[in-house]
Amino acid sequence: xxxxxxxxxxxxxxxxxxLSGQELIEELEEECGKLGLSEEFxxxxxxxxxxxEERLRGGRPAPSGLKLREFASKVQELxxxxxxxxxxxxxxxxFSAPPSVVEAACKAxxxxxxxxxxxTGIKELRQAVASKLSERFGLDLKPExxxxxxxxxxxxxxxxxxxxxxxxxxxVIEPAxxxxxxxxxxxxxxxxxxxxxxxxxxxxxxxxxxxxxxLTKLIILNYPNNPTGKILDRGSLKAxxxxxxxxxxxxxxxEVYMDFCYKDGFASVLELPAERKIMVNSFSKTWGMTGxxxxxxxxxxxxxxxxxxxxxxxxxxxxxxxxxxALAALSDEESARRNIELIGERLKxxxxxxxxxxxxxxxxxxxxxxxxxxxxxxxxxxxxxxxTLLEKKRxxxxxxxxxxxxxxxxxxxxxxxxxxxxxxxCRRIREAIEEYS
Amino acid sequence: xxxxxxxxxxxxxxxxxxLSGQELIEELEEECGKLGLSEEFxxxxxxxxxxxEERLRGGRPAPSGLKLREFASKVQELxxxxxxxxxxxxxxxxFSAPPSVVEAACKAxxxxxxxxxxxTGIKELRQAVASKLSERFGLDLKPExxxxxxxxxxxxxxxxxxxxxxxxxxxVIEPAxxxxxxxxxxxxxxxxxxxxxxxxxxxxxxxxxxxxxxLTKLIILNYPNNPTGKILDRGSLKAxxxxxxxxxxxxxxxEVYMDFCYKDGFASVLELPAERKIMVNSFSKTWGMTGxxxxxxxxxxxxxxxxxxxxxxxxxxxxxxxxxxALAALSDEESARRNIELIGERLKxxxxxxxxxxxxxxxxxxxxxxxxxxxxxxxxxxxxxxxTLLEKKRxxxxxxxxxxxxxxxxxxxxxxxxxxxxxxxCRRIREAIEEYS
Lengths: 437, 437
Known about the structure:
Two copies of one chain form a homodimer.
Chain A: H1 2-16, H2 21-34, H3 39-56, H4 64-80, E1 86-87, H5 99-110, H6 123-137, E2 146-149, H7 151-163, E3 169-174, H8 179-186, E4 190-195, H9 205-211, E5 216-221, H10 234-247, E6 250-254, E7 277-282, E8 295-298, H11 301-315, H12 320-331, H13 333-355, E9 360-361, E10 370-371, E11 374-375, H14 382-393, E12 395-396, E13 398-399, E14 411-414, H15 419-435
Parallel strand pairs in A: 1-12, 3-4, 3-5, 5-6, 6-7
Antiparallel strand pairs in A: 2-8, 7-8, 9-11, 10-14, 13-14
Helix pairs in contact in A: 1-3, 2-3, 5-12, 6-12, 7-8, 7-11, 13-15, 14-15
């Protein structure tokens, strides 16, 4: 009876007194070690207290990614009611999977490739991915390095599960795809946010050097970046990998926009030396296969097995006919090239059209499928603007606030319309910004 | 410094002194409440200490389901080497998806149903599931009650996430599909195991009445049962639902074998009154669609939204063309009926053939796709037998040990071969048992 009270009192004093993670974890681990308790116990105990501290401070807002999904549903509703909306808010190409891919899926379905399969994905596709990347980056990857996943989404989710534990610190660099932080928190990990700045060309290196510590277990990188389009140069990537090695942390390179580079200098995490790295990729963007839900991770065989186990636990496996479609995609380089060129041309149009307004600051696009301009209007609220733009101009964009608290004066605009409609959408965006007050 | 030591000491004393969950959780919650800490904190703290206690006691063995998967891989390897193996070890029908389903998938693919979609699943399929179940059970279900999931596997995984938190107690009734306990532990929940007995006709009610407590947050039921084939009668189900209501616990009815009933008396959790219930189902078994990875949950709209959010977090959504195939399956009652009859005939053969041996005790099959006979040989080891049977007789079955520690004298044999080969496989099993020593 007394012991319970005593324990709770100690926890409460601690939580309310404010916790400083780094020193604490070492102390906790040491004391736990002395009494034969595990490091994991120490880490989870600290994570638990840090979570409770956050809850007491007022908790976390609902993930902004979910708000974007609601917004997109609203747009769809308008469309169903017969309204014409120029949609630029989603990270989904307007082009569909090429016929080669569709027909490969149908062929596989008819040939009965619809039984349970390995949670790792089928060997042929793992081999094809390994070969393709080995050729591109001069490596010697094996099928054992590759796991085929339910899209890039599960690739990230499974990787977080594979290399971190509840209570561990995951670093997310903002502005960021909202799902990284959401997934990490969902899995009971703690998120350390790095907030890069427009003025510093979205460079994360210095901030990472300041903030990454021995508590850090995973750093999530995403270049070419969603939403900024930034490509991280090889030197910066190298610096980050070294920093991570020193801290004993893993680096996850989400490289789903790897093919969409419109400036030299992209380097994959696979190319640079580091012990602890995972590359994430997807078939969604390059081949317009978003709804197929197929992507992959590349890492050492041990991590690959852990990701496969996570996938096995959550969904047994993914459909083999989908994987056979992905196999066809890998050899359809013509479609990939066409899609990449198309996005490149549109990014140029977006840059050109948005640059015409004095109220819009936009950087020359480097990669991915987006521009992320800053709006130079005092007190600009990206959500309010998005709703007004939708109502008055029938154009939908993603508010900058979706990608982090600091980005409320930004908009993410996707290069997913053809040239003329895209120019028209930009005209309306410019108008709406001029009318905004 | 002192405080850390003091806290760790208290935890350590507690963990090593043995914990009795039920009284502790109430005390912990009360003390936490007094100091303004949340119930969740109390529960997670207790869960953490119980986990550490288990680890100190020697930890948990690797999930036996994974061993079965390795065994199945070995069988496949033999097959690739040209050996003929009669495979009865998997929970996968030998029949494939009917042409109606395959062609619906191809049509949807060609029509471009391969974009991002709602994490809940498409409205048409949710509506169709709601209508079909409403008609069958005399209910008034809406699409909002239904979420389409990545197979029955994610249906269970997402449901555990939806209605429990880390540290919560989940009740699993053995013999059981190994993934229930594995998923619950994977998600940081604690598993309370109920071990039903052959002699008591696998009846769980009394044991549940003894063991379910205020700590219990979820009871997982699976009738018709994998592996025993048992159908729980309506009265027993009602008793369990009432018991759960009293304890404030949820009941998950995994009813993926719902269509495979060869005895009257099956009742769905949907049919009986209870506040907290989730029904899980799948297209895998009834239509031979294992590799499509499509199933669903039915619950109240709030739980449905939580399952959808879990799915969104892990994989964004599942392919729409797969869902359109499932829609076609729902209206292909002819194929379903044929498959159900086929399995029924084979279960009869299994029963008849296995009953011929005095060393095999087998119950008349009630449902699902399995028999789960007891082998009356002293010191019988189901794993050793499985390997010997594979090596000497080229027949593969699932060892009873996969379904719980207490079932090492049992075998699970799946009704997934046609009549004559199935009789031959049974002959070999009988022989192998007679030769076993």
